[in-house]
Structure formats: structure tokens, C-alpha cells
Amino acid sequence: MPENRYIRWFKDTTIDDVPLVGGKNASLGEMYRELSSKGIRIPNGFSITAEAYWHVLAAGGILGKLKESMEGLDTSDVADLAKRGKMARDLILGAGIPDDLWGEVKKAYDRLCEEYGEDTDVAVRSSATAEDLPTASFAGQQETYLNIRGYPALRDACTRCFASLFTDRAISYRVTNKFDHFKVALSIGVMKMVRSDLASSGVIFTLDTETGFPDVVFITGAYGLGENIVQGQVNPDEFYVFKPTFREGYKPIIKKKVGSKEIKMIYGRGDSKVLTRNVEVPEADRLRFCLDDEEVLKLAGYAIAIEDHYSNKYRESRPMDIEWAKDGITGELFIVQARPETVQSQKRKDVLETYVLEERSEVLARGRSVGDKIAAGKAHVVPDVSDLPSFKPGEVLIADTTTPDWEPVMKTAAAIVTNKGGRTCHAAIVSRELGIPAVVGAGNATEVLETGREITVSCAEGEDGLVYAGILPFHMDTLGLKDLERPKTEVMMNLGNPEEAFSFSMIPNDGIGLARLEFIINSYIKIHPMALVHPEKLTDQKVRREIEELTRGYADKGEYFVEQLAEGVGTIAAAFYPKPVVVRMSDFKTNEYASLVGGSYFEMEESNPMIGFRGASRYFDKRYREGYALECRAMKKVRDEMGLTNLILMIPFCRTVEEGRKVLAEMEKNGLKRGENGLQVYVMCEIPNNVLLIDEFSELFDGFSIGSNDLTQLTLGVDRDSELLAAEFDERDPGVMKIVAMAVQGAKRNRRHSGICGQAPSDYPEFAEFLVKEGIESISLNPDSVMKITLTVLEAEKKFGRR
Fold first, then answer.
1. pLDDT (tens digit per residue) in 448-463
2. Is the CA virtual torsion 466, 472, 476, 477 positive or negative?
3. 7-193 maps to which CATH number?
4. How many CB atoms lie within 10 A of CB 544?
5. Predicted structure pTM score
6. CA distance 757 to 490
7. How many CA atoms lie within 13 A of 650 on its CB side?
8. What's the pLDDT score for residue 344?
């Protein structure tokens, strides 16, 4: 008999060995063999093969009884499922591990101890022979045991791993995915523990998990061992890295979000039989990220290399779901698992489905959205796994968190809402696979959503998942993308919310014609920039405390503004890269600036803010110059550090040519010189003077974007916010259309870009047709109008011979 009949070391394993060692172990072996030389760290270990599992059943004489335990199984009967699952597990636990198999396991463990030290700590991980397929992950179906030391604990953990092939959830999962229970075997991976109990760990996806956007690495992390993230016990930190410019050598962390990370899983005490335990995380640690930027970028590099390896091997794009761990003793980062992503990568790419909520009501709970769908039904609060049998199909499952044991019931839910968890927790992963909306990390959902109450769960409104009171109407729009003709006139989008950027980028488009900073400043930053530059001018202690709370973790308060703004803009620029993204510098009115935290100290009261101290006139004025410098620093960070040179900057409400010169000089002082590193600067064309002096403005700027809202207001002398004069405000007025035509012709004459970003083309298809006739180069629209107006533009181009 061979010395190692039932043992296979990682160094001797490849991805082709799935039938022998299961998906998890085959991937670990593949990476250990092929990627260790490229600097990716994989802990050493070995597999107890699937043949060993069959040997356990044969030596114990239990295969026939196991088959009997599964006959006539009805997985929808939770009580029957639990009874049969326990029967099957007890059979395997009773059979135990035969001595010849145990002898090989002991020898292999001894070799690991020679490498890592006496009684070394190992993870004992199940690896089913049908798992980690591109279409079915089998994630979390069997058990894992951490911090296992010594022979007795190792033998017990291995026995329990074999038995976990028949957990209730694994049985139900195989039935749902049409796998034969007795054509699936269990291999066990025994690998050196990474001491992430002393540092951090988490999950990486090589795409955006909610939209399928392929050009980002999405990293989650929390302190301690990784089980808490997978089980949804903590709300982790999140990081997004943009792949295309990372490959070019930039450092494009385009988004970061600190999670609450209230607890962490660490090793048990001394010789205690408690192998792991959860402890509270100190508040100071909760408020800071569990990884620094360099570590985030290193993990992104690992993830991209792993994705590239598997994509090249299979000659097709292979997005990956990866687990990482940081060793708190050595500070090294390790990859401890990698498998194919099984949800977004399987979706049809030629159809765009968009869920639209038709009405809104009181928001009862709010968390992180999972997916982009909407569902409605009666809430059912489930405090514990023992209460699951009372859950009825079609209800909305409300829980503190979920574990794999809940899966037989989860697949019957209309939607899922949990108090805890991030977007890579168990509830999130399963809901994606099932194609149902989920809101995770909602905080107090089990308290505010009582059983029997009718609710609507919406994941169709960006990163925030919302739970509304009542059954609200909604619908789904379907758009076929195959063979869709593109017009010569660029059809772009207006966008302010970075959370919507990845999903809107899937709509056929030519880039972003107007990205507004105001939404990012209002929603994410919330503080007047001058209040960050001059905190000494703030006398109200309440305002000071609010700013301190928002900027906690930033020694330089100005850096808070720069980083938050750069990440918001960077997300939009990345979503549409390499297409142009035109970002308009801040265009708040004085009353809007004053409403920001600390804003009242730096803003005057104006009788007519609409035509007051706004736009270009602020940027070089001593009352705002330092605030504008922060905006410029943020834009420079997006272009120079993130590498997103598709970013075009645009100056709003520039009244005179002299103002234009002063603004460009101010930008250059702050490192944004027009023409340098390809930087283009546009100007809004929204004041009649911009049109009358378009030749002179053309000497300063690379393009014009017609702001039809303000241009109509100032041409007709109508306050665009006046209810009394609403009927008089119409972009289709002959005078307005004439001045718009003059702007387009003037830009053409000076060989400058001409576009429009106002509301008119979104509201009036005939206005879009008029713009095509005049020869405008780009039309920027609200996202919900893009496809409708694209068809209008195509027809107009044919009509006017522009095809």
C-alpha cells in the first residue's frame, strides 16, 4: 500500500484535482504551486482526499443506512430535514476515522509541526468534490474548525468535518441544485492557521457584488478571524480598487467605508476546550480601518493576479471570490481560499433589468442593499433558528443575522433583512444566489419590524437598502442591449450620486456630461469646506462637536474633505472609464452653502442667491479661495493618484472672460494646469454673455456645456424656482432656442466641444431633435431618459443626414 494513500499536499495538487480533493483544496493547491513564486502567500497544508471519505463509510459499514436516511426526503419540511440530517451525521460520527487513515493524517500533521512548530495550530476545512464550480459555490455548506492543536482535537475535527457533508443546509443545497448526495464526497483541508485573531481578515471579490461591474476589486475586512464576516456578525470595512489604472501603476482606491466592527473572533484561552471566542473591539479600533492603504493595494494585486491566472487557464473571464487573512505576528497578508464568483458572472449580459419603485412611504429600516431588486410581503421576525418552522413562503425574513442552517427557509423568502452583516456576509451571499433582495446591517430591524406588518424592501436605490411601510407598487423595465445602434451624437448622462454609478454605467452611453459635486458634498461630506480650513472661527460647541464626529480619524480636517470628494468623483470616473466624465466644480448658492455644517459662519445672506455669489466668482475670492483649493486637491488626487485622466473639469456660472482667467490661474496654483497631463477644462454656457463672447471664452476653455435651466432663466428673465411663473419657463421658447443655436455654432466655429447638460432634452424629445439638427456634439440626460432620447437622436440623425 502507498505510504500516502489518503493524503495529498498542496504542492502536489492542481485545480484539476477537484474530484480527489474538492474545489477549495484544489484551488489552494493550484495557487500554492503556481502563484507562490509571484509573491502571493498561501499557508502550507495538505488534503485528506475524497477516497478517505469513502473509506470511512466502507470501514464503518454505514453507506446503506446513509442512503436509507435520505429516501423520501422533503426539504420543505424543516422538521423532517433536521431529523434525517442528524441521523446521517450520527452515523458518520459513530463510524469514526479508521486507524490506517488516522496514521496517515498524524504523519502529515507531524510534518506541518516540523515546519511551523510543535502542536502547531491548524484550520480543518471541509472541501466537497462538487463545490466551487462557476455555477454553484457550495459556500458555507459544510463545517470549518479553527485553532485545532494536537492529535485528539485534530481527529475529532476531521470526524466532524466528514459528518458535516450532511448538515441540514448542505442536504437542502444539493437537492435545490440537483446534486446526488452519493455522488458528492468530502475532502478535508488541514492548513496552518494565519494569526488573524491578532490582526484582521476578510473577503475579496474581483467585481462589484451588486451590479457585476467588472473593473473593481471589492475588499471587505474586520478584526479577528474571518468567521464573523462570513456569518454576518459584524459590519466590515469596505474598499474598492479600480483595476485598469492599478495595472498602470496608480493607487486607485476609489472608495472606502469604515464598518462598525463591534466584535472580533480570537483564540480561546490557554488549554480551554473553547477553541475560539468573540470579544468586543475597543471603540478607537472600531473607528479606524482594519487595513491601511498599502495593504488594500497589496490585496488588490493578489486578487487581480488570481483572477488573471484562472481567466488565462480557462480562456474566459473568471471573476473570483477570495478569502484573505493578515497575520498579527508577522504582519504578512495571506490568501486562504479562492473560488469562482457564482452570481454576477452567470447573469445575462445582453439584457438590462431595472426595478423602479413607483411610490414611497415611511422608511422603517435602512441598511446596505444587496442586489438591485424590490420585493414586498409580510414581515416575519425570526429570533432563532428554532423558530424557522413557523416561517411561511413569501414572507420577508427579518433576523439578527443568518447562518447556513437557515438556507432551507431563506430560499422561500420574498426578501431578507438583517440587523448585522456586510455585503459579503452569509445573508448577502445566499440572497444573491437566490436572486432575492436583502438589506443587511440594518441595526434594529428586529425591533422596528414586527411580525405580520406589510412592508416593501427596496434595493433599487443605490447602496442604501430601504424598508418601507406598506405594500408599494413597483415594476421592472427590461432593455435588450444586443446589436443596439449608437448615434454619432454622443448621448451622455447627468449623475450626482456615486452609489448609482456602477449600475448606470451598464446603460449604453458615451460617458458623463455632468457630474455634480453638490450631491457628494451634501450627502457624504456635510461640512462647509471653510469650516474645515478655519475651525477657530466656529464658536458654537454643538457645531464643533458635529464636525469632530464627522472627521474623526483625520488629523488634517481638510484632508477629510479632499478624500471624501475624491472618492465620490473617483467612483463615477471609474464607472465610466475611459469615457469622458465631466465634473462641474461646486455650484451651491450662498443659502445652500450656509446650510452645510458650519456654513453660517462663512456665508452672507443674499436677497437673490440664484444670481448672487455663486460659481466662478467664488473660486478666487478670499471668502472661498481656500475652500476651492480643497476641491482642486480632490480633483488632482482623482487624476494623478487614481490615474483617472478621463476626468474633465467644468467651471459653472462664469460671468466674464476675466473671471475665467482668474479661475484658471487659481486652478493652476493648486496643481491643475489646463493642458498638463491632458487636462481639459470646460465652462458652463448658461449666461447670455457666454454666448455673446463665445469667441473670447473659446481662447480659455476646451469646451462648452449648455446649462439650459439657467440659460432659459436669464434669457427670459424668469426665476426658474417661481411657482407663479412656472408656465412661462420653457426651453422651447424661440428666443431660448435661438441663443442655444448661437452657442452650438460658436463652439463649432472655434473648434471647441459643444454639449448640453440641462433638463430640456430629458423632458422634450423635440428639443433633442433640434439639438441634433444644429449639430451639437453631445447631449447629457437624466439616466431614466437615456434610452428613449437615444432612439430620438438616431431618428433625427437619419432625418437630417447625419448618419
1. 999 999 999 999 887 8
2. negative
3. 3.30.1490.20
4. 15
5. 0.87
6. 12
7. 31
8. 75
| Pairing assessment for the beta strands 45-48 and 7-9 based on DSSP bridges | antiparallel
Q: Please provide the average confidence, as pLDDT, over all residues in the chain.
A: 92
The yes-or-no verdict on residue 135 having pLDDT over 60 is: no
| Strand partners for 352 | 479
Task: Please write the tens of the pLDDT for every residue from 56-97.
Answer: 999 999 999 999 999 988 887 888 888 999 999 999 999 999
Q: Please give the angle made by the CA atoms of 477, 481 and 485, to the nearest 5 degrees.
A: 125
Cell of 643: 490615474
Task: Please give the positions annotated as active site.
Answer: 426, 757
Residue 619 contacts residue 628 (beta carbons within 8 Å): yes
Strand 396-399 relative to strand 144-148, pairing: unpaired
CA atoms within 13 Å, Cβ hemisphere of 50 = 21
pLDDT in tens, 693-706: 999 999 999 999 99
Instruction: Say what the pLDDT of residue 1 is.
Output: 40
Domains 490-648+666-679 and 681-803 fall in the same CATH topology: yes
What is the domain partition of the chain in residue ranges?
7-193, 197-323, 351-479, 490-648+666-679, 681-803
Distance of CA 522 to the CA centre of its chain: 21
Residue recorded with cell 464568483: 341
Fold of 197-323: D-amino Acid Aminotransferase; Chain A, domain 1 (3.30.470)
681-803 has CATH 3.20.20.70 classification: no
Q: Domain 490-648+666-679 classified CATH 1.10.1780.10?
A: no
| Residue entry with cell 472609464 | 577
Top CATH class of 351-479 equals alpha beta
